[in-house]
Each structure stands twice: as C-alpha cells, then as structure tokens.
Design goal:
Layout (H helix, E strand, L loop, with lengths): L1 H4 L1 H4 L3 E8 L1 E2 L3 H10 L15 E2 L4 E4 L16 H13 L3 E2 L3 E2 L10 E10 L8 H7 E10 H9 L6 E7 L8 E4 L11 E8 L2 E9 L1 H6 L4 H54 L5 E3 L5 E4 L1 H7 L3 H4 L13 H14 L11
Antiparallel strand pairs: 1-4, 1-8, 2-3, 5-7, 6-7, 7-8, 9-10, 9-12, 11-12, 13-14
Length: 345
C-alpha cells in the first residue's frame, strides 16, 4: 500500500507514516493485552504514568531504518505533539507540530523536523462541529518529517541566487530555525526580506537573503526579485499543504480500491483452495492457524471453529505432538519451508 503511494519519492523528507489510536484510561490494560496477543509480547504504553487518555503508536511504516522503540510511545504525553493532535482533531485538517528534534537510530546531522497529523473519526458518525469531532475522534494518522530533506526538495527550483531560511513561529531566531539553504556568515547580504505564512496550522517565518551571484547580475529591482521569489516559495509550501490534503483523498480512494481487489482475490483463492484435493491451512504471524480448506474439514470431521488457533493440534497423536510442534515452530521462526509426517486422528 505504501509503495503504491510513492510518498518517499514525492516528499523525501517524510521518514515514516503511522497510526495512533485514542485509548481512554479505562481501556489501557485491555489495549496492552490486545497488542501483546497480536504478536508484540513486550508491548506497553510509554512513558509510564496515569493519564486521562493515551495515543500510543501501534502501526508504523518507516521509509528508512526501523525506528527504535516506537511502538507504544504515547504521543499525547508530549506537549508539542499533543497541541498539534488536538488542533487536527478540532479542525478536521492536517496539522503540524512546532519544530522538534527527531532522532532516528542515532543523531542525524540536522535532526530538526516536525510531525504532521490527520484526525480519524468513528465511521458513520458526524464530525461537522467541534463537539462532534471531540466526541467521535478515534485516532490520528501521522507522518515524521525531517525538515532539511523536505526543504531541499522544495527550494531546489529556486536556484542559488537566494539564501532561504525557514523558522517555526512568527519570529526568526537560532532556536526556532527549521532550515537554512546557505551560510549567511560566509558573506554579508545586501538585501533581506521576511514574510510569515501559515502551514498546516503553524506560523512559519521565511527569511530571504540575496547572494553575491544575484547582486553581481542585477543592478536594480532587488526588492521586486526577492518578493517574487518569496511568493513562489510561499506557493510551493502552500502546494505541499494542499497536496497532503488531496493526497489523503487519493489514499482513501486507493485503499477502497485495493480492499475491493484484495477481497475478490481472497474469494477466488478460497474457492480454488476448497476445491483442491489436498489439505490446506493458513497461519498468522502468531503461529495460530486461522483458516482450513473444506478438504481438511471433511477429512477431520471438525468445524473451522474447532480447528482454528491451536485446535487442530487436538487431533495429533500424543506421541507425535512434541516433535510436530518443534518442527513447526522452529521452521516458522526461521521463515523456512518444512515437511513432516505425523499421525492425525
């Protein structure tokens, strides 16, 4: 699904996309137990502490190296993330955090970045008012974005005549710098212009400084040139925000189409598998079998419900069961094919 979206090619700064459900305090223990049942034995909600609600990461698709210890991290426990998540919930729109430090398996050279959130509401319930959005929010889809990688891609169209700096907030300081295309300390700048714009709910300040290449080529109209270039960058960033929103609609349409295709493919597979003269079973990553074809059920005389999970093992001869289980689990863990013979009642 993520390969189909080609997000990491369109926007290289997006390092990963995930999902965090809203978990009320009273459902925390049940949530942890369910995640462990699904195959995460060490899963827990972090950081520790009693809170009214949690938004732990349960899904994450990383476009680079795996992100260490991401599962279970409660994003509502961090003030900057919580502010963006609540703004996304209340406005039903994409919302980004303030500038934060993103560290992924070590410290990159420039860890400045932000997280973008989209709210997810309960299906079939209204979310056309502030009250209904807060009542029916079920979680957030989010994207981790390294600012430098994203900005290099955006400003590459503007050439080298300008040094462009992007700051989080309504002022330009060293502490809130998101990205700088050059090094203003290398040479004094003749002209500088600033403009403020809103990107996904956050104010950003753009600082545009002339570079020697521009100053040597132009004898006049510096201000107009910088203003036009600033407007172009503003349009590029606005286009990014619009594309992320329209991309949400495209992603939903793609998900519906792929779901239909997957359902049809699964239906065809099961029809053929039920007609096959061999015994066929399917297992999930937890090693529990969740489907048996009709040939298997006719052979054993048991129902699908009776065989599901580890129910099939009830028919294995007691003398064969330990060896059977050892071969099955050891090869399964190594992702290797295997063959074995055992007596089955």
């Amino acid at each position: 699904y993520f390969r189909e979206l080609t997000i990491n090619q369109r926007y290289p700064g997006i390092q990963g996309i995930g999902f965090a459900p809203l978990v009320p305090h009273g459902q925390r223990s049940r949530h942890i137990a369910e995640m462990r049942r699904q195959g995460c034995p060490d899963y827990t909600v972090r950081p520790d502490g009693e809170r009214e609600r949690y938004a732990p990461i349960v899904y994450l698709e990383s476009f680079k190296a795996p992100i260490s210890c991401a599962l279970g991290f409660d994003m509502l426990a961090e003030a900057e993330r919580r502010a963006a998540m609540e703004r996304a919930r209340d406005t039903d729109a994409a919302s980004i955090t303030a500038r934060i430090r993103l560290v992924e398996n070590g410290s990159p050279e420039d860890p400045a970045g932000f997280v973008l959130y989209l709210p997810l509401y309960e299906p079939g319930q209204p979310h056309d008012s502030l009250e209904s959005r807060r009542a029916h929010i079920t979680g957030w889809i989010y994207a981790r974005i390294f600012a430098r990688d994203l900005m290099v891609n955006l400003v590459s169209h503007l050439g080298t005549d300008l040094d462009i700096a992007v700051h989080d907030g309504g002022s330009a300081t060293t502490d809130n710098l998101i990205y700088d295309s050059g090094n203003p300390a290398l040479a004094p700048t003749t002209l500088e212009d600033r403009l403020t714009m809103t990107v996904a709910g956050r104010p950003w300040t753009l600082v545009l400084r002339s570079q020697p290449t521009l100053e040597s080529r132009l004898a006049r109209d510096y201000a107009n040139y910088i203003a036009v270039t600033g407007t172009l960058l503003s349009l590029l960033l606005s286009l990014l925000t619009w594309t992320l929103h329209s991309g949400r609609l495209r992603a939903l349409a793609l998900a519906r189409r792929m779901t239909r295709e997957l359902s049809e493919s699964e239906r065809r597979f099961r029809t053929m598998a039920d007609a096959a003269p061999t015994l066929i079973w399917l297992s999930g990553e937890d090693k529990g079998c969740d489907w048996f074809n009709q040939t298997w059920l006719s052979f054993t005389g048991r129902s699908l419900a009776e065989e599901s999970g580890n129910g099939w093992a009830e028919g294995v001869h007691p003398e064969d069961y330990p060896r059977c289980l050892d071969i099955y689990t050891s090869h399964f863990d190594r992702r290797e094919p295997f063959a074995m013979e055992y007596r089955l009642r």
